[in-house]
Amino acid sequence: MSETTACGGLPVVLLHALPLDSSMWDETARALRAHGHPVLPVDQRGFGGAPLPAGDTPCLDLVADDLARELDRRGLDAVALAGCSMGGYTAMSFLRRHPDRVRALALFAARATADTPEQAAARLRFAELLLDDSLRARIVTDTAPSLLGATTRAGRPRLLNRVTDRARAAAPDSVAWAQRAIAAREDSLPTLGTTGVPAVVVQGEEDELVTLEEARETAAALPSGRLVTLPGVGHLAPLEAPEATAEILSDLLGQAQRSTTSGGATAC
């Protein structure tokens, strides 16, 4: 995780997609810091520098509680949360378990509903296949391109290669654990419906994994939420459109700051 600046406003926690790590937010984080926002890119358990503890039943609540402990360690009572795909699911779990610590919410390419039985079964099957040494390389090569939009795949081959290489490098046990945790996640629509914090749902128009209708449903569940669609972008907006992602988050942080100060709190 990165350090925050002293008295620099509301920290924003950046939660990465599967099977990547916090480096997927590097360009967005630089842009946010350039505008004075404290930023904490987080490696979720099993990815980047975060270990995967042995023996835990896969559950995103554990990942959310990992984050709560890290915020405690840093002396941070409240943050803005921005999560992409798996990171969005972790953010919703954190919101359910630690609602008083969330001041703003951004969900990228993450549906609020639980998996259907068919979707969950497909995730569990995928997890098993990834643990098969004879199949893993082909499966990753076949599936990694779907993380990016068609426009990105056609016009940015280096980014496609980067994402594929990162997917190949991810620890199979960690990816399988995360897939099982995502498959077991709760329906977050009720949780979203009870939060009044400023919120935004961001959807790439070329996302092949989460539909625009699912994004609309997520945004509609948030009392203070709105939907932003990004043309020419797939599942990984922080990589495909980092500047637009930073602008969206900067605007959200401004909303949260205005909400806090209008509520009688003292601004830095």
Description:
The chain is an alpha/beta fold and 268 residues long. The chain has a domain of 179 residues: Alpha/Beta hydrolase fold, catalytic domain (Rossmann fold, 3-Layer(aba) Sandwich). The protein is 48% helix and 12% strand. The protein contains twelve helices and six strands. It has a six-stranded parallel beta sheet, with helices on both faces. α2 packs across α3. The radius of gyration is 17 Å and the shape is globular.
The low-pLDDT segments are 1-7, 264-268
Question: What's the architecture of the domain at 12-113 and 186-262, going by CATH?
Answer: 3-Layer(aba) Sandwich
The strand line-up of the biggest sheet is: 2-1-3-4-5-6
Which bin fits the share of residues in helices?
40-55%
Q: What is the 3D shape?
A: globular
Termini Cα gap: 23 Å
The number of helical runs is 12
User: What proportion strand?
Assistant: 5-15%
What is the overall pLDDT average? 94
Number of strands: 6
CATH topology (level 3) name of the domain at 12-113 and 186-262:
Rossmann fold
Name the helix and strand elements from N-terminus to C-terminus, one letter apiece.
EHEHEHEHHHHHHEHEHH
Class derived from helix and strand content = alpha/beta
